[in-house]
Amino acid sequence: MRTEKEMFDLIINTAREDDRIRAVIMNGSRANPNAPGDIFMDYDIVYLVTEPGPFHRNLEWIKRFGDLMILQMPDDMQDPPPSEDGRFSYLMQFMDGNRIDLGIFPLSMIDDVLQDDLAVLLLDKDGIIPSLDPPSENGYLPKPPSARVYADCCNEFWWVSTYVAKELWRQEILYALHMMNMIMRIELMKMLTWLVGVGTGFKCNPGKFGKYMEQYLDSERWDQLLKTYPNANKDEIWNALFTMCGLFRSASLQVGAHLGVEYSLAEDQRVTAHLHHVQGLPPDAQEIY
Q1: Any idea what DSSP says for residue 216?
Q2: How many CB atoms are located within 10 Å of the residue 110 CB?
Q3: What CA–CA distance (Å, rounded) separates 159 from 151?
Q4: Residues 88 and 208 occupy one common structural domain
Q5: What are the CA-CA distances from residue 192 to residues 20, 197, 263 (Å)?
Q6: 234 & 127 share domain
Q7: Which percentage of the chain shows pLDDT scores above 90?
Q8: Residues 254 and 166 in one domain
Q9: CATH number of the domain that 156 lies in?
Q10: Last residue of a domain, which of 137, 168, 201?
Q11: Could you tell me the pLDDT band of residue 95, with boundaries at 50, 70 and 90?
């Protein structure tokens, strides 16, 4: 595996030797002073160039970066449609374990690149990059929700829980898991992120998709969160669903109290009673109630 020094030398020297590349910016986890370093950290790099066109889909040019295991060019894919704004990215996983996520940006998009609070200047041939503040997580910190956003989160969570229940009664396991993991979980993680914000003064980042959440939740809540991930077994999914509801309820009450926003406990109780009722319905039931 090439060393960090070898990788930075490769990235910066490639830019130095190409007149079209005028500046190099690093962002991502390697620019984050609070990110735990490990062997899997990517090199998130932006080349600001005078002529982006020749760099697009240039598979010969990227060979200089190493022996590829797999390459993705998201701007050349159709789902979602490409932005067509001049930028182009190469996501390169190499055989030696290193990975570079390389963005090619036209010089006209300097301001877009520098909007990221985690931006570190590696090379500036023309003095075109303004003085940058030290990289920080300010742009990634959770923000207190408005009363409306909080209420919408609660409503969506409990609304979708009824889908999970009816799909479990129908024995449509995949649909039930989809609704729980792809929709309910999004709302749960929103609420837990706000809970972390409440406990830290909204000054700590629980990470993308909650990857650092364990650092900020008490052991009981962390254990509950892990139990919301079931196997594809009907009884396990029911148990996970009720665990998820309990965790959401406790977090919502605490967040709501901090915000001075009332949690709709009556709605929670009505829906929870319905979930238990559906769980007990016989498979040949002709009526719900």
Answers
A1: T
A2: 18
A3: 12
A4: no
A5: 46, 9, 15
A6: no
A7: 86
A8: yes
A9: 1.20.120.330
A10: 137
A11: very high
Residues 274, 217 share a domain: yes
Q: What is the rounded average pLDDT of the residues 163-172?
A: 98
Domain carrying residue 59: 4-137
Residues 181 and 107 grouped into a single domain: no
- 212-233: burial string, b at 16+ Cβ within 10 Å, e else: bbeebbeeebeebbebbebeee
**pLDDT tens per residue, range 272-281:** 999 999 999 9
pLDDT value at position 54? 94
Mark whether 59 and 119 lie in a shared domain: yes
Under 8 Å between Cβ of 205 and 140:
yes
Instruction: Report the C-alpha gap between 192 and 34 in whole angstroms.
Output: 20
Q: Residue 84: is its pLDDT beyond 80?
A: no
Distance, CA of 36 to CA of 22 (rounded, Å): 30
Q: Please, which residues bridge with residue 90 across strands?
A: 102
Q: Confidence class of residue 81 from pLDDT cuts 50, 70 and 90?
A: confident
pTM of the model: 0.87
How far is the CA of 175 from the CAs of 164, 179, 286, in angstroms?
Answer: 8, 6, 22
